[in-house]
Specification:
Layout lengths: L1 H20 L7 H13 L4 E6 L6 H9 L16 E5 L4 E6 L4 E5 L4 H4 L12 E8 L8 E5 L7 H11 L4 E7 L6 H11 L7 E6 L6 H17 L11 E3 L2 H10 L2 H6 L2 H15 L3 H67 L1 H17 L3 H31 L51 H13 L13 H35 L5 E3 L4 H26 L20 E3 L3 H5 L6 H14 L19 H25 L28 H13 L8 H15 L8 H22 L2
Parallel strand pairs: 1-6, 1-7, 2-5, 7-8, 8-9
Antiparallel strand pairs: 2-6, 3-4, 3-5, 10-11
Helix pairs in contact: 1-2, 1-16, 2-11, 3-8, 11-13, 11-15, 11-16, 11-18, 11-19, 12-13, 12-14, 12-15, 14-15, 20-22, 21-22
Length: 743
């Protein structure tokens, strides 16, 4: 019993907490019902309420059962308060006023002042509760009687009755046999009892003794129909219909006339009532919980409506924020990817083996010709600037997109120009007949100070091509111009080594600074949304607690508990792309992935054979260079699209994986069928790209990539005729791609 009591107490607390979350008005019906049912849940007594319209004899019936005139009765509506009759050793009245004042009086005469209607048939507003303590054996078993005001008289009284019925374990509905089950009584039976889970109801017909014998038989038949149509939840074997002539029964009791009391039907009713109570009383929970379930369902429905409304508002905000964050994250990842590739190209270029392979020969020649400064500016600096700008460009993109720290220029200085100290020239005549040397007139004694001898230039190329660093030291005797050439080669190697070390160090520092630029701040959410999130969590917690406490008392609910709301990170933090995201390429771009891997591998491989300085004519771009241009174009195009999305109101709407974005969203407002010219134009575009009609956008893009790499005019720099054809072909390819992209 104690465990059951604790479960009911917890449930009552949950109901009250849920009521507080709903911010119900104190006078609202639901608030009053919750208060009533919560108090009733923990009430140890078994309460029997007498219910019916005014002047049906409710107080008279109770007085007859108690054996005296305990309650006020009259021919006009009398009872103006809900009067609870409890067990007491002496007849005593306890009245609680609204202001907290308590009034105790012996007997029940004080009821005339506080518990009956006044001359205007109004009940007193200052009375909170009325209790009578009566020495009766039935009450001593833990039973309480509740005498309710008559219904169908005043709306205020009807509200009081409706509220108090929830606190009754058993309802005695008094019927007037002279006007059996009026429309109002049927409505009250449905709305006040059945719909609220109150099904332990006994019908008692009064005033049958006032009818003629023939009428009594007809009324009896109608009463049976009424009783059978109402599915009362009483113990098996007990009827839910009884006849009691209340006033004759009271007179018989006051006189002690047992025979008259029996003939009035009172004795049979009392016996049945006591037996019913004896069965229901030990298991009061089975009687009360259906009423709790009815009230709890209303609470859950109201809570769910409130929860859903706030949840929709929060979801709308989260969707907008997540859409913006996803766009920014994608942009940050793309920018970081482009930056990492550009930096990788620059680092690859700065690797000493690559610098030696590409520049050592021509730099040594320029040094020998006293033209190193010009070579440094026109060749080395030009290439460096191009690579530096390619990397800085991505940080400019990041600053424009995220407005974080402004990027600094990437400045890699050049070392001091190499200085040579020429060896002493032998007095012997130079032997210029070596393989790889070129005989010149006039000697070579003015190296570095004026125009260089062709012998030194030839020796530089010859020595590098022979890779003399790996040769046996069998060539003990070298000509003077070969000694000078080796000095030039070594000086340039030292120069490029210093340039490589310093450049790579600066590049590493620059990469670290880039982390503060390619990022964006996740700002705090507005206080209004934070408050709504907290309110939603409180509502869901209250809902879940109520659901748990209902389950403890075996009340089944159709609702599922809410999951805990993830807390919004309400602190300023920054999102920065992770390196692993950049190095993991999509399977859709295998050529880019392969190119990246090749770059990494090449940084570890030193080319062993060095060609002579390239010719002055501009070479055709390599396919990988063209691929890099195309890759940069793709990234720039994607970032530009995302910038447009960030500025567009569409960015405030949640995008689903299947939704269309970018150009695909800009559909025409009408559903007109394209004319034949448009159809032919689209068909021709598919033919140019070598695709089947209705190919996907991904297929269009891939076909365009393939054709660009095949027909880009830069691939035919030294072939004027083919370059012209390529230009015409690229014009058609670009036009077809534009048509199909905007389709």
């Amino acid at each position: 019993m104690q465990q059951e009591y604790e479960a009911y107490k917890d449930l009552a607390d949950s109901l009250k907490s849920a009521s507080a979350l709903l911010n119900l008005e104190g006078k609202s019906q639901l608030h009053q019902d919750i208060s009533t049912i919560c108090n009733h849940l923990v009430n140890p007594s078994f309460r029997i309420a007498v219910f019916g319209p005014f002047n049906h004899g409710k107080s008279t019936l109770l007085n007859a059962m108690l054996g005296n005139r305990t309650l006020p009765i009259d021919l006009i509506p009398t009872t103006g308060a809900a009067i609870t009759v409890k067990y007491g050793s002496d007849l005593q009245t306890h009245i609680m006023l609204v202001d907290g004042t308590e009034i105790y009086r012996s007997g029940t005469e004080v009821l005339q002042e506080f518990a009956i209607l006044d001359g205007n048939r109004q009940r007193r507003k200052d009375v909170a509760s009325v209790e009578i303590f009566c020495p009766h054996s039935f009450l001593e078993t833990g039973v309480e009687f509740l005498d309710l005001p008559g219904t169908n008289d005043r709306e205020e009284q009807d509200n009081l009755v409706r509220e108090q019925l929830l606190s009754a374990d058993l309802v005695i509905q008094l019927l007037d046999a002279r006007k059996l089950m009026t429309l109002g009584e049927r409505e009250n039976l449905r709305d006040w009892l059945l719909d609220r889970g109150i099904k332990t109801v006994i019908f008692v017909a009064n005033f049958i003794n006032l009818l003629e014998p023939d009428e009594q038989k007809q009324v009896q038949n109608r009463l049976v129909f009424v009783a059978e149509s109402f599915r009362a939840e009483l113990p098996p074997g007990f009827s839910n219909l009884y006849r009691v002539d209340a006033l004759p029964a009271l007179r018989a009791r006051l006189k002690g006339d047992v025979a008259a009391a029996n003939s009035s039907g009172l004795a049979a009713f009392e016996t049945a009532l006591q037996n019913i109570v004896g069965i229901l009383q030990p298991n009061r929970g089975s009687v009360r919980l259906p009423r709790v379930q009815a009230i709890a369902s209303q609470i859950q429905l109201s809570l769910k409506a409130k929860i859903d409304h706030i949840a929709i508002e929060i979801k709308s905000f989260d969707d907008k924020q997540n859409t913006k964050i996803e766009i920014k994250q994608k942009a940050a990842n793309l920018i970081y990817k482009g930056f990492a590739i550009s930096v990788g190209e620059l680092r690859d270029w700065l690797a000493l083996p690559k610098l030696l392979t590409k520049y050592q020969a021509e730099a040594a020649v320029a040094l020998a010709e006293n033209n190193f400064k010009s070579w440094q500016i026109n060749t080395l600096k030009k290439d460096l600037t191009q690579l530096q700008l390619a990397a800085v460009k991505w940080l400019d993109q990041a600053y424009e997109f995220f407005h974080e720290e402004r990027p600094q220029d990437l400045l890699i200085p050049f070392p001091s120009e190499p200085q040579l100290i020429l060896p002493s020239k032998s007095s012997n005549t130079d032997d210029l007949s070596e393989s790889g040397s070129i005989a010149v007139g006039g000697g070579i004694g003015w190296l570095l100070g004026g125009p260089v001898g062709a012998a030194v230039v030839g020796s530089i190329s010859y020595l590098l091509n022979k890779n003399i660093q790996n040769q046996d030291e069998q060539l003990a005797k070298e000509s003077y111009h070969q000694e000078v050439a080796k000095l030039c080669i070594t000086a340039i190697e030292n120069y490029l080594s210093c340039f490589s070390v310093q450049g790579l160090s600066i590049l590493t520092e620059y990469e670290q600074k880039a982390e503060k630029i390619i990022c964006f701040e996740l700002s705090q959410e507005p206080l209004e949304i934070t408050n709504k999130r907290e309110t939603l969590q409180r509502l869901q917690n209250g809902f879940n607690h109520l659901l748990q406490d209902l389950e403890k008392v075996k009340i089944v609910s159709n609702y599922q508990p809410y999951k805990e709301i993830p807390k919004y990170p309400n602190i300023n933090s920054k999102y920065s792309p992770q390196p692993e995201r950049v190095k993991t390429f999509s399977q859709k771009d295998p050529d880019i992935k392969q190119q990246y891997e090749n770059r990494v591998n090449n940084t570890e491989t030193r080319v062993k054979s060095v060609s002579p300085p390239p010719p002055k004519a501009s070479p055709s771009p390599r396919p990988e260079e063209l691929e890099a241009k195309f890759r940069d174009w793709e990234l720039n195009e994607e970032i530009a699209r995302m910038k447009a999305e960030m500025r567009s109101p569409k960015a405030c709407r949640q995008t689903s994986p299947g939704s269309q974005t970018g150009k695909q969203q800009n559909t025409t407002p009408s559903n007109k069928t394209p004319n034949q010219a448009q159809i032919d134009k689209i068909t021709h575009a598919y033919d140019i790209l070598g695709l089947q009609a209705n190919a996907s956008q991904a297929e269009v893009k891939q076909a365009y990539r393939t054709l660009v790499k095949k027909w880009h005019p830069d691939l035919f720099v030294n072939q004027p005729q083919l370059q012209k054809q390529a230009q015409e072909k690229m014009h058609l390819i670009n036009e077809a791609y534009t048509i199909l992209s905007e389709k």
